[in-house]
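Run log, item B.
One chain of 756 residues. Sequence copied directly from the ordering sheet:
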Amino acid sequence: MKRFLQLANFFAFALFPSLSLAESIKQIKVTGNQRISPETVEAYLENRVGDQYNQKKVDSSIKNLFSTGFFSNIKIYQQQSILVVEVEENPLINKVAFEGNKRLKDKDLLKELSMVERSSFSNTKLQQDVKKILSLYQKRGRYTASVEPKLIKLDQNRANIIYEINEGSVAKIKKINFVGNHVFTDQKLSSVILSKESRWYQFFSSSDVYDGDKLNIDQEFLKRFYLAEGFADFEVRSATAELTPNKDSFVLSFVVHEGPAYNVRNIKIESKIPNIDIDKLYSLLEFKSGDLYSINQVENSIEKITDHLGDLGYAFVDVEDSIEKDPENKALDITFTINETYKIYVNRINIKNNTRTLDHVIRREFKLAEGDPYNTTKVFRSKQRIKNLGFFNSVEFKNSKTDEPDKVDIDVEVQETSTGSLNFAAGYNTSSGPLGSIALTESNFLGKGQEVGIELTRAKKAADVSFSFTEPQFLDYPLSVGFDLFSNSKNRAHESSYDSKSVGFVLRAGYELTEHLYHGVRYSAKRERISNIPSDASIYIKEQEGKNTVSSIGHSLTYDKLDDRIDPTKGYLLKFNQDLAGLGGQTYYIDHKLVGAAYYPVYKRDVILSFVAKAGNITGLKGKPVRINDRTFLGSDDIRGFDSAGIGPRTKEKKEALGGKTFYTGSLELTFPVGLSSELGVRGVAFTDFGALFDPGQKQKDKEGFYNDHSLRASAGVGIKWNSALGNIRIDYGIPFRKKSYDEKKSFRISFGTRF
């Protein structure tokens, strides 16, 4: 009987092992831990005091503890009524260091790592971090880079990690192959994509460095290019990058299928919005029946239709396009479908993320207000005006639906940028010589949108100091007010045998008459002095010596339709200035100036034709002559090929430039690529300049006279503009082909400037 009971117990424990530990867990004992508290370990256990031992729960508990990354080894077992948890902690990372990295800074590498100082070491994470470092180098074209991690153990279970990095060399693109292209050459397709074959002159560019993401973008660019040229069946069948055996370069291969070019046959516009003028929508299309199909023209047409309907209050309009191809006839039909939507009104305008700039500074730039009908053009113009403030890195407009279907919230999310700057500038100009300047500006003073600036400029022939303040919205009215304080000095000893200095101030105000028409008014007062006239100077210069006070009022009208104020490629500008001196002081005159500029893209934005014209006249009042400081001087800045102050009235004996009361100039210029990569920023220039300057306002003396005539001067030439990493460099070579014998010529004109 006893033997029978023993066998029964044996089989029971074999079939039901949990019965072998009938005694419940009365205590949990954690051993081996140094930094991690027993309570933290117990929190990850699924076995609890009072439970019976359960192997499944033990396995799950071990898994939970390993997932924390705190431990390198874990054992859990039962000793009678005690559940023992033996752990071996991973070392605590004391320091992470890098050796051999020159192209990437330590801080950039640390951003990518999951294991940093005061975190627990893990072999798995270590290998992941090595892959992340290698990925960073591969994105920069360094596929031969290697990373060797070293773990240096310290006392108290701490460790340092040192990543020994061999950055390797950059794997550049050796060759780009195209297969399947019959209509367009390899050279043409190469100009379309971002990736470029390595060339000696691309030292400032990364376009010849292989990047997998760039390869995907290249495929999209090729597709866009062909769809814009009518090839609606085009596809990139494969795009591969093959690393050469020595891993120092790549060969890219694109296999394409061009298909036929399609012409547009039928065009149809269907509107599910009632009472829409369909004929007006047809007039917005950028193509017509019979034209070559172009995805760009289709998308531009959709954008114009969307903007037009947006101006009518349909903020959420949805315009779909569909095409039906007829490959046999190489023709396709296009249908535009305008889906039904509501006419929308502006509910609320929400400004977000402006921590420094006051709300009303942003709101006053809006061309529509809460409660107004939604208008796409006004929304776009509002966004443009906020961007033009220069206070933000980014400005994003988002339309948010509200509980009311006919109302929308406009959310404006801005990312502020630094608006204060300390700039040092250096440069060279053939008319002024070497120059340098220091400028301290704050364009968003106290977050109110006010501009404050001080600038000191020193050149070989000039020295200027100025302070300015501008309030763009005086008392929240659309009125800009401000003032300038200045001290200017010029050395005209070479051209006109005198030095001049002026100190004064300007009070100014301006406001918009229309969206593009601006009117400005000003009052100026200055004290001038002409001195350092040599004893052998002509009588025409000597009689200008002395001090003088000028008090004047003036105004300007500006009509600006340029697409960019800094580097225009399209549009035009007209500006008229008028100043009247004589409100106090000893100077009396009326001065008129007219400036016009027009820019026309001859071919896309690559070839730009521009024409700039200026004209002016200053007339003395109350019988007073126009002093030499108030006259106009013409030279290399306006008509290239001539020296500074090289055109116009000049004394016969001393060849001193006297300036003139009346002038006009014109410049016709063609800017074009020179065959180098556009990323280099080098462009060629061909130009012709012309103009005239006459009438100094002084009477001829008996003993000595001066040259003065209305003859046209003109020059032609070529030049190079380089927007380099060191600054803007321009070299012009002009040859006068209409000139006078007494004019001063200078063929080369060089200008260089940078800010740092």
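Observations after the first pass:
- The radius of gyration is 38 Å.
- The chain has 13 helices and 35 strands.
Flagged for discussion on Thursday.
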